[in-house]
Each structure stands twice: as C-alpha cells, then as structure tokens.
Amino acid sequence: MSTRPAPVPRAPSWPYCAHGADPTADPVGCRGIHVTGHTACLAHLPDTDRDTHLAGLNPGAHIDHRGTPFVASLLQQLLAALRDPTTGNPRLGTVRFEGAQFSAIADFRRVQFSGGADFSGAQFSDGAWFSGAQFSSIADFSGVQFAAVPQLGPLVCAGSVDLSGAVFGVPVTLEIAARELRCERTRWESTATIRLRYATADLGHAVLSSPVAVTAHPAPYVDGLVHVDESLLAGCRDGVRVTSIQGVDAAHLVLTDTDLTNCLFSGAFHLDQLRLEGRTAFAPTPTGWHRRGIRLTRWTRRRTLAEEHHWRAQTAGQPAPPPGQDPSPRQWRPGPRHPDPGLTPDPEDVAVLYRQLRKAFEDGKNEPGAADFYYGECEMRRHDRTGTPPGERRLLWTYWLLSGYGLRASRAFTWLLAAMSLTVLLLIGVGLPTHDPEPSTTGTLHGNKISLHTSTADPALRGTWSRRMAWARAEKATRVAVNSVVFRSSGQNLTTWGAYIEMTSRLFEPTLLALGALAIRGRIKR
C-alpha cells in the first residue's frame, strides 16, 4: 500500500531567515522576515546585532516581524525598546506579525498600536494577553491559532477587529470595544463568551462546537482596578449590532441585548433553538402613510426581519440610499444586490425564517414576541405565489383583512361594530314587523275556564319607511344584534328576512368577537 509523501512546506513571500533549513525534513527553515540590513530574523540575529537593532527603535516605530518565532524574553525586549516614557506603556506604529509564532504567553497588555496591527495567521500556543490594549486603526487576527488563550482583551480598537478564520481551542472570554468585529468562519472548539461594546458584529458562517454567548457589555471594561480608556471610540453609537448569523448552527448561540435590525438569518441552522435574551431589537415596519395606486395605506407596527425588508424593497424597485446614509424610516430597507436573483430570499424562504424564530420565542415563553413573527410568517405565505396554493392565499387574505391574522384586536372589533350596525339597520328596515300581535287572555268566568285568543299578526312589512325608522324598533333590533354576538336567540318576533339576518349575524359576529379576544390574548399572554 503506497502512502502519499508529506507536503513540501511553502516558502513565504517575504525574504526569510531560513535558519535550520534541512533539504529533507524542512527545506524552508525559519520563516521569519529579515531584519533590515541583515539576513536573519529578529530571533536568530546575533546578540550584539539584536541589541543594536533594538536600541535604534523609538516609541511609535513601525515594526515588521512576519513569520518570526517569539519566546517570552524576546517579545519583552522588543516591547521594552518601544516603551513610551510619558505613559510607561509600549507604543507601536504599524505592526506586522503575520504568521509569527508565540511559543510562550504573548503579553501585549496596555500596548498602544498607533497604526494597523496585522496578526493574521499567527499562532499563540500558550496564551495571549491583550487587556488594556488600544488599536487606533485595524486589528487583524484573521486565521490566528489561539490554541491555549482563555482570555482576549479587554482591548479597544478605533476601527475593525478581524477574527475571521481564527480558531479558539479552549474556553475563552473575549472583551472587545470596537466599531466592527468580523468573525466570519471563526471556529470555537469550546465554550465562548463574547462581551462587546459599540461593535457591529458579523458572525457569518462561524463554526460553533459548543455554546457561544454574544452580549452587549453595559459599562466600560475594568482592567485590574482601572476602567479601560475608550476615548478612541468617542462619538460611536451605543449598543451592539449583529449583522449576520448566516450558516451558523444557532442551537449553540445566545444573543443578549443585541440589535438585529440588519441581521441576516438565511442559511442558519436550528434557528428554532436560537436563544434571544434581554432587549433584542428587530427592524420595524415603515412609518407613516403610503400611496399605493389610488389607495392610502399604513403598515401596522411590528418587528420584522431584514430579509423581508430586502424582498419588499426589491419588489417595489426601491433604490438603495447613498453610501454611509441610513435608509428613511418611511421606507423598507434595501439589501445587497446579488448578481444571481436566486440568491435573494423569496417569500417562501422568509416564511420559514419567521416560523423557526417564532418557535424560538414560544419556547422562551415570550408569546407577545412570537406574535409578530407569526404575523410575518402569514404575510410571507400570503405573498408566496409558488409554494402557497391560490385558495390558501385567499383564505389568508380574508384572515388578514378581518383580524390581522388573529393579532389585531382593533381590526376585529371594528369589523364587529360594523357588522352589528349593519344588522341593526337591516332589522329596522326589513327584519321587524311593523306591529306586534295582540296578547291572548285566559281566565275563569262564573266558574268556567275561558280563553280568549287573538289572531297573530302576520310578521310582514307594512307601513311607510318613516314608521319603520322608529326608536322602539331600533331598540328591538339592537337587542337582537347584541344577543347574536353572544350566540343567543333574542326571542323577538321577526319577519322571514329578519330570521335570516339573525342567523347570519349569529354566525359571523361571534367569530369576530372571538378573533378580537384571541388577538388580545396573544399580546398579553406570557
């Protein structure tokens, strides 16, 4: 049986040290970039040359140590050479540590990165400390192997923190205050707690092997006994926003006090097991009145998904706002334009998202929250012309018109009041006879029992309209209508038309009353 030869290590793109290269075992050797003016990396420079190089560094200097292996003492020497005497903390300019290997704990506590910091592809085999670190630009940790890092942060970044493709091998706590956090295809092999401030987080296609909690931290982080300085983020919006959990196994995800206004859920797994804790915000419907043809319409207030906004904006041909400008609250929020229309979720896809998230709310005993998602599910089914049969769509349209899918009590009671008013008018006009029968009399005369019967007047319509439209008839008609609402017979003498009117009202009016009561229950049940 033949075995495949081991892959040949790929040489880096920069001029590298090659210390310890072996033609058979490791033809590349050390991948550390040359120190300027030398043919070796910082780790393999002779002691005198290394000391000379470090002595020439000043606080704020740009450093490039891509692929360099660091032990604890070497990193301490480098940071000591860059220490700012005014603050007592190391201050670095643009930093490039791509592919560097930190064999001991990498201590970057209270380090100020004045420029961009690129740690992509680096390996921290025994932990890394970044508490109190400040990044004035971008902190790139994409592809980093955090093999034994139990804590990352608290760190402050004025720009973006990129953890895309990073791997966390042990239970970890991340504390990050930044404008943006990218965790695309980040892998958590164990539990994780991610405490964020100000950040807009993208968790698209992250791999969660264990529970991961993302929460908005309510107060500045504390490093030791001192609050971490967040002046780099002055003017940033409060709150934490999550923009995507696409492709994520949501059964392991907990979101607490997050803003999901622009969050994309399509492609996520087990959304019905997603846990939403605290105050969770979703996108509202557009406000105000809108003209649709010759009709004026107004969207009822409810929580919606970004996918519904994108579909409605695309269907209406609504243009996207200028870059950097938020869409008007009077419009649906347009989404990204895909070259392939099949990548845009259609009503059938969005209905599935609503259904799964509705179950997540119901399992969390949040019936009022689930109500909005049931409304959204029915809306998408009503607009789905491929997966919903025409008869079912017409039934949904009727359900929506009468009671807002059993969730709009005001609509159901308005229809009930209108139905009762129509019943009263019809009964006054054609349902009640114009005169009542004379009463019959029974008694005893000279010891003999007698009975005087009067003929029952024919319950027909007689007389003019002015005679019919009387207060006494209105009172009788109102009694009939009220009794119909509670599904009782009034016992009132009616014409043939009146009997049919009463039967019809006894069928529809209790139904409208039940829909109104159902809507109230859905809003107050816990």
Secondary-structure blueprint of this entry?
Layout: H1 47-55, E1 63-64, E2 69-70, H2 72-81, E3 91-92, E4 95-96, E5 101-102, E6 106-107, E7 112-113, E8 117-118, E9 123-124, E10 128-129, E11 133-135, E12 139-140, E13 145-146, E14 151-162, E15 167-168, E16 172-182, E17 187-188, E18 192-197, E19 200-202, E20 207-208, E21 212-216, E22 222-223, E23 226-227, E24 240-244, E25 253-256, E26 258-259, E27 275-277, E28 283-284, E29 289-292, E30 295-298, E31 303-304, H3 306-315, H4 347-363, H5 367-383, H6 390-403, H7 409-431, E32 441-445, E33 448-452, H8 465-468, H9 471-485, H10 496-524
Parallel strand pairs: 1-4, 2-5, 3-7, 4-8, 5-9, 6-10, 7-11, 8-12, 9-13, 11-14, 12-14, 13-15, 14-16, 15-17, 16-18, 16-19, 17-20, 18-21, 19-24, 21-25, 24-26, 25-27
Antiparallel strand pairs: 22-23, 28-31, 29-30, 32-33
Helix pairs in contact: 4-5, 5-6, 7-9, 7-10, 9-10
Give the tags.
526 residues; seven-stranded parallel beta sheet; alpha/beta
Write up what this structure looks like.
It contains ten helices and 33 strands. Residues 456-461 have low confidence and may be disordered. It is of the alpha/beta class and 526 residues long. α5 crosses α6. β22 (222-223) and β23 (226-227) form a beta hairpin.
How many DSSP helices? 10
Helical proportion?
Answer: 25-40%
Q: What average pLDDT do the residues reach?
A: 83
Strand count, sense and barrel status of the largest sheet are: 16 strands, parallel
> In percent terms, what proportion of residues is strand?
15-25%
Low-confidence stretches: 456-461
**Overall 3D geometry?**
rod-shaped
* Rg over C-alpha atoms, rounded to the nearest angstrom: 37 Å
Total strand count, please? Answer: 33
Question: Roughly how many Å apart are the termini?
Answer: 65 Å
Pairing-aware structural class of the strands and helices?
alpha/beta
